[in-house]
Amino acid sequence: MFGLKVLILSLGFDERFAIRSILRTGLSRGDKVLIFTAEPIVDKAEKALKIILEFLKKYFEGVECEVISIPTKDFEQSISIIGEQLMNLKKLGQDIILNLSGGMRSLIIELIIASILVGLKGIVEVELENLEGYLNFPIDILKMRTPLKEEYKSILNAIIEAREINLSQLSRKVAMAKSTTHKIVKKMIEEGLIEYEKIGKEYRLKAKTIAKLLTKI
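The chain above was modelled as a monomer; its predicted structure follows.
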């Protein structure tokens, strides 16, 4: 990722997921950490929060950190508070990583819904409970609408059939202008439906597994 980064964390009783995400993100001066936790902040959560804040202060000088407590039992108020914070981030145009590995289920759901409502763009991360890795996906995939438009299906089916294909070949195969094909492909890359690999000077397009499911809907 390029430019300034914002790492958003949902926090519960365990600080380990947050610290792993902080280390993996590689925060630098000017970056920001935004921690959402449920209110009231109970002793275990306060202890985890203290560890994270001390860790940031010791190892990540110049990284701003803000803690926001959310009244998770009040759904509408929670969405409003989270949404306002996310809108501010969206206006800044910074790279956003949304780590949803800790905290109450209600808090995580509210963060997801608020992200969809404000049209937030970035990456969602979820740590595995056994600490052996994590999964990530574009936030855009959360607001994907099904069924897919026919031109999307046509392009995805062409890529699936070819297994891998370049843009010029794809454009000819689906009988669309190259500019139109490129625009749709770019959108589907952002939504996590297509991936690409550079081989020499050529970019080869491949359909992700989830795309194969969506072409059948």
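The two ends are 33 Å apart (CA to CA).
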